[in-house]
Amino acid sequence: MSSTIGFIGLGNMGGPMAANLVKAHHKVTGFDVAPAAREAAKEAGVVIAASAAETVAEADVIVTMLPNGRLVLGVWNEIAAHVKPEALIIDSSTIDVDSARNAHGLFAASGHLTLDAPVSGGTVGAQAATLTFMAGGSKPAFARAEPILLAMGKRAVHCGEAGAGQAAKICNNMILGISMIGVAEAFVLGEKLGLTHEALFNVASTSSGQCWALTTNCPVPGPVPTSPANRDYRPGFAAALMLKDMKLSQDAALSSGAATPLGAHATQLFDLFDKLGHGNEDFSAIIRFLRGGTGG
Ligand code: NAD
């Protein structure tokens, strides 16, 4: 069934996601503060509105895809007085759990259905409509959102109530940040011990050291030809974005009282790596930093 959708934030992720909604025969109106993002979305068939408020005026479903929690709260506040009474509001940005819960709270009194639904799969997944959505909100909100999410991705998982999607996203990415450093340290140790990359890969990838950081995004060139290490660490998943997610995990650990000592240490290492000027490289390039020097 075709829906009228308002899409706010038409950047690297939001642009192709909105384009996929158009391809799925939805009527999509969009807005972005950046002229280049508006222009690219227009070429993909998105009707461009003059403001966030205008974007949502006719929409049955609203999707926001923005850089951080402060902007999401700003935009959700801005549109609150303009959404139709029966509209569903979805935020797919990766933001802190507290902001996500506050965003849901903005619509609690009006009774609108709301969902936090961050994604995994990156810009490649956004373009190919193969994203995985992890959602937090009520069952009716998820049920109504699911067909829309599946026009932009291949999987949507309902993780629980408000904020649960963001919680799942940052817990997953904390595992990823820690495990990449673990895999990279093992290769560095193996090098010092005279082990070839192939030998360590062949053992660990079929043993208990097996994980995504090793078998899909292997931080050394060779064993996994499609990993960013084979193209001088061009992302992939940029170290700056990994750092953003690691910091979100640490904000959540602080506000919930969870002990995440390895998460904290991994965050410090990605922070240093970013400050040394490597934020635009794939996060697996941290292996160059772990070998010593400045990671260059
Ligand atoms: P981006 O910077 O390319 O896009 C964000 C867009 O939001 C920009 O075009 C910007 O102009 C627009 N924007 C900012 N403030 C606005 C406002 N007030 N009103 C309207 N538009 C506004 O970022 P992105 O890579 O598309 O990421 C978006 C979100 O998705 C982030 O939360 C990010 O963490 C998450 N994410 C990104 C990736 C990735 O690989 N890029 C993967 C998973 C999740």
TrEMBL record:
The keyword Isomerase does not apply. Residues 4-160 form the 6-phosphogluconate dehydrogenase NADP-binding domain. Residues 163-290 form the 3-hydroxyisobutyrate dehydrogenase-like NAD-binding domain. It is an enzyme of class 1 (oxidoreductase). Keywords: Branched-chain amino acid catabolism, NAD, Oxidoreductase. InterPro entries: 3-OH-isobutyrate_DH-rel_CS, 6-PGluconate_DH-like_C_sf, 6PGD_dom2, 6PGDH_NADP-bd, HIBADH, HIBADH-like_NADP-bd, HIBADH-related, NAD(P)-bd_dom_sf. It catalyses: 3-hydroxy-2-methylpropanoate + NAD(+) = 2-methyl-3-oxopropanoate + NADH + H(+). Coiled coil: none annotated. It comes from the Bacteria. Its EC number is 1.1.1.31. It holds the Pfam family NAD_binding_2. Pathway: Amino-acid degradation; L-valine degradation. This is 3-hydroxyisobutyrate dehydrogenase. It comes from Pseudochelatococcus lubricantis.
